[in-house]
Design brief:
- This is Methionine synthase.
- Keywords: Methyltransferase, Transferase.
- The protein is α/β, with parallel strands linked by helices.
- It is built from 10 helices and 9 strands.
- The protein has one domain: TIM Barrel, CATH 3.20.20.210.
- Helices cover 38% and strands 18% of the residues.
- Strands 3-5-6-7-8-9 form a 6-stranded parallel beta sheet.
- Helix 6 links the parallel strand 5 and strand 6.
- Helix 1 crosses helix 3.
- It binds zinc ion.
- The site of zinc ion has 6 residues, from loops.
């Protein structure tokens, strides 16, 4: 990026009312067959337009073609049986009925590459594409085959690497791996989680990011946050090793969270997508509030490495709220950009 403080979102945006039930996770599609395919493309165009109108610099597909940030990828894999459901506890937080790994996992074909090509045709702006990270994927499944979290995560890392290489070839500039699980399973992250992430980015020619957050603004997450005390120091457990890793960018949650900002010093040298928009609240940030969080982050992140972003995806928000927050993000970044340029 030539521009300093380039803005982006963590990934998802609300879907149009005619495509899926709003403000609902795993919301079923309202269209089918060819209509669904065309509807997803129209929604992607709208999501892009919404970002462009707000002045977002690094754009995404708004995850308009996926029902869920993890499940949609898994649906395209062999070795997973969606009719065999088991209830597991996701990120030690809430129970969900998930599919079962019944044999060796492999990719049947590319999953998001056509969508990425379609987005590439619509804009010359830099594109960021989100994929689930290996550790977050294994946490959203029941494993009756490998019976080893590490072994299954490693297989997923290889699959993600194949997909990521095709996305980069399709013109994606930044590939982001969503790893909210990195905020929960600290020992695993340090023992093999980061190694799996590095396997997923092996040989990639584009930039790479990892997004680690405190989750969507759903009740299970807000209840969990209440148990975390006055200071959220989860990042402290994984940042030192992440700083040493080959990942280019770390995307994290800052605004309205209790993350002590001095923890950002632990990843000095990395580019940082700093979350300056709270996705767990409908109250609208002002540009000045956004600017204030960015100024604080600048104490620990060099200006040329600071990327203003949202705390997490905005899929569960009402559309007009998400839209207002995108505008606040761009306006707040512009305030600090002008200050830096003097
Ligand atoms: Zn997130």
């Amino acid at each position: 990026m030539n521009k300093i403080l380039p803005t982006s979102t963590a990934g998802s945006l609300p879907k149009p009312l005619w495509l899926a039930e709003p403000q609902t996770l795993w919301s079923p599609w309202k269209l089918q067959g060819k209509e669904l395919h065309a509807g997803k493309q129209d929604a992607l165009r709208l999501a892009l337009l919404q970002q462009q109108r707000a002045g977002i610099d690094i754009v995404s597909d708004g995850e308009q073609s996926r029902q869920h940030f993890v499940t949609t990828l898994i649906e395209h894999l062999d070795g997973v049986d969606f009719s065999r459901r088991e209830t597991v506890r996701i990120r030690k937080r809430y129970d969900a009925s998930v599919p079962t790994v019944v044999g060796p996992v492999s990719r049947k074909g590319s999953v998001f590459v056509d969508d990425a090509k379609f987005l590439r045709l619509q804009t010359k702006q830099p594109i960021k594409w989100a994929l689930p990270g290996p550790m977050t994927m294994i946490d959203t499944l029941y494993d009756a085959h490998y019976k080893s979290r590490k072994a299954l995560a490693w297989e997923f890392a290889k699959i993600l690497n194949e997909e990521a290489k095709e996305l980069a070839a399709a013109g994606v500039d930044i590939i982001q791996f969503d790893e909210p699980a990195f905020n929960v399973f600290f020992d695993d992250v340090n023992e093999w989680g980061i190694a799996c992430l590095e396997r997923a980015i092996e040989g990639l020619k584009c930039e790479t990011a990892v997004h680690i957050c405190y989750g969507y603004g759903i009740k299970a997450n807000t209840d969990w946050k209440k148990t975390l005390g006055s200071e959220w120091r989860q990042y402290e457990a994984v940042f030192p090793k992440l700083q040493q890793s080959k990942i280019d960018i770390v995307s994290l949650e800052c605004h309205n969270s209790r993350v002590p900002l001095e923890l950002l010093a632990l990843i000095r040298g990395k580019k940082v997508m700093v979350g300056v928009i709270d996705v767990a609240s409908d109250s609208m940030e002002t540009p000045e509030e956004v600017a204030d969080t960015l100024r604080k982050a600048l104490q620990y992140v060099d200006a040329d490495k600071l990327y203003p972003c949202t705390n997490c995806g905005m899929a569960p928000l009402a559309r007009h709220i998400a839209n207002g927050k995108l505008h606040a993000l761009a306006a707040g970044a512009e305030i600090v950009r002008q200050e830096l340029l003097g």
